[in-house]
Amino acid sequence: MAFLEVRGIFKDFGKTKVLKGIDFELEKGEVLAIIGSSGSGKTTLLRCLNFLETPDKGQIVVNGDVLFDSSEPPYSDREKREKRLHFGLVFQSFNLFPQMNVLQNVSLAPGLHETSGRKLTKQEKGNIFKNIEDNAMQLIDMVGLADKAKNYPCQLSGGQQQRVAIARALALKPDILCFDEPTSALDPELTGEVLRVIRELKSSDRTMIVVTHEMNFARGVADKVIFMADGIIEEIGTPDEVFGNPKSEKTKGFLEKSLGD
Q1: Is the Cβ–Cβ distance between 128 and 54 less than 8 Å?
Q2: How far apart are CA 155 and CA 148, in angstroms?
Q3: 3 state DSSP class of 248
Q4: pTM confidence score
Q5: Which SS3 state, helix, strand or coil, does residue 134 take?
Q6: In what order do the strands lie in the sheet with 16-26?
Q7: What are 47-69's pLDDT values in tens digits?
Q8: Quick one: how far is CA 52 from the chain centroid?
Q9: Coil, strand, or helix at residue 149?
């Protein structure tokens, strides 16, 4: 059984059919790169996996646990929040809280998760927040920003803000870490620092899905590549298969244009 199983995901927005039956599997520790033109459904797929959108049909299974099944009654907001914890999402535009410093941004979600709805003494709360801040500092150090922990987003470059967003996504220890075009809002000279952090995150126990327009990065880091077009998976395979010997004419055309830019 694969670590992540995505089965028959469909999603419409009104009369617009965005996802038309998405099926793929991912093993634990694998990195999946999703490429394709704008409007192909890549971001919608990530939002469905992260329970920011609800698929019209299909199933999502993580480590044998069925997180979503369209045949079941609609999930409550609380159920969605719990299921969302299996996935971490790094957005295109950072989405940091401007009034909070780096450490506070990374610590916020774990703090809310650990204390919400619980009756705790002052000492218990203090111990919880101490552990959360210690873990947050480890993550901030891992993305190379230990010296910026007390800085606010406005004091950081775009690349640094995106690295904070990566640390924040890791703070809740998700099963699968997702990136939605993590370098699209960055100047070219800042792109490399973010891609370097993502490369360093690759390990045997960290499963990642990266929607990206960086073809060389996808080819060099991914274990599996999906090319999406018109709401379907047009081609799927290893980087050598998809980039080196694409079978679909649409894939060939996309790669010729992308790699020729």
Answers
A1: no
A2: 9
A3: coil
A4: 0.92
A5: helix
A6: 16-26, 4-13, 57-62, 65-69
A7: 999 999 999 999 999 999 999 99
A8: 12
A9: coil
